[in-house]
Amino acid sequence: MTTPNASADIQLLATFNDAWNRHDIEALMACMTDTCVFHAVAGPDMMGRTFEGREAVRAAFQSAWENFPDASWTEGEHFVSGNRGVSESTFRGTKADGTRVEARMVDVFTLRDGKIEVKNAFRKDRPAF
């Protein structure tokens, strides 16, 4: 059975996914807490690369569209259990050199007070084509 809070949190994740596809940074950041954290799919650390705080997270989110101007996250499926949420989708995008990336991915979220506190992104390591 889905609780009212879980339903609202699932809608939050769907809204967040839609904002990514619209390339709408204001709508994305409206979904995030003031103390938000983003763990990117790649980077030098165990968690990829970590961005902490609204300005760092905003810049990291915007860089996704700079690196992949046609980026999209489709076939989104979302679920919530307690204060944790998961979104699964297919990422598609074209790099500046013309190579395309298409791979399934998962975001694992920590939720607080109706917003996203932590976004931890994972993507299949499929070669570009």
Automatic annotation (TrEMBL):
<dbReference type="InterPro" id="IPR037401">
    <property type="entry name" value="SnoaL-like"/>
</dbReference>
<dbReference type="Pfam" id="PF12680">
    <property type="entry name" value="SnoaL_2"/>
</dbReference>
<dbReference type="InterPro" id="IPR032710">
    <property type="entry name" value="NTF2-like_dom_sf"/>
</dbReference>
<feature type="domain" description="SnoaL-like">
    <location>
        <begin position="15"/>
        <end position="116"/>
    </location>
</feature>
<protein>
    <submittedName>
        <fullName>Transcriptional regulator</fullName>
    </submittedName>
</protein>
